[in-house]
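Chain A, query sequence.
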Amino acid sequence: MSPLFRPAPSARTRLLAVFGAPVRHSASPAMHNAALQELALDWTYVACPVAPDHLAAAMEGARCMGFAGINLTVPHKQLAVPLMDVLDASAEAYGAVNTVVFEAEDAEGMWRPVGQLRDPSGSVRARGYNTDAEALVRSLSEDLAVELRAARILLLGAGGAARAAALRLADEGVGALWLVNRTEDKARALAAEIEARSPVTEVRVGYPEGDVEVVLNATSLGLRPEDPLPLDPAAFALGRADGVYDMVYRPAETPLLRAARTAGCRTANGLGMLLYQGAAALELWTGRPAPVPTMRRALEAELYGAAT
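Chain A, predicted structure.
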């Protein structure tokens, strides 16, 4: 298929979507539609604004309309957990769902992704996965060259993305985690959960007194131009961090990353995390290897205006 040709959606086109609030900033449609074109699949991926109190209805609508799968972004990743019929071990482990695969029974009575069935029929169920946690670890390693074992990390946030990140980092054997959140009780609850699951991980609530290898922003602060920094510079100077990673990827340089660059830190935004979680999701939906280089080029073009 020519890279310039994309067939118009038809009655046979399979549907994928990302649900979020907000979601207009999402680069997932650009990434996934480029991949679907590369794979010559008659599928399309759209972004749908879904308020938290409409999530259950939207999920049921997607199931009934034959969607192959859904991605979930802020603020739905924890809200979606009880809406799943089945949780993959990844979603159970990290308590958040960012990828939903709709499944139906094949001719042998085995549950398979509807996107891998010619004519799915009968009951459809939702299986929830977390592809974020592994994607974050890979991106931190590649984009900031961080050796996570024994690393000291200041984590900003305590929501679904932060919780998955904290638990995965503890599994990776980080040396110490400091948790900072606007609502301190949520940070304390997350700290208690990490201590129960990974007793060897040192966990503290609040800012560290010494230096850290990474400041990791897992909040949505930075999406809007008027957002404040997700940390208090008077409590922690960014120059005390070797690197700063912001899960926010649009704008490409958030105020946090700009301040970190000025302070002499190595910086990375969430493009790598978005890429690798998306590649994993695509493989779950389609059963095909994800064309990662194509997906990366599409993201760079979307976010940076880079030529593809």
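The two ends are 16 Å apart (CA to CA). Residues 134-269 form a domain with the Rossmann fold fold (CATH 3.40.50.720).
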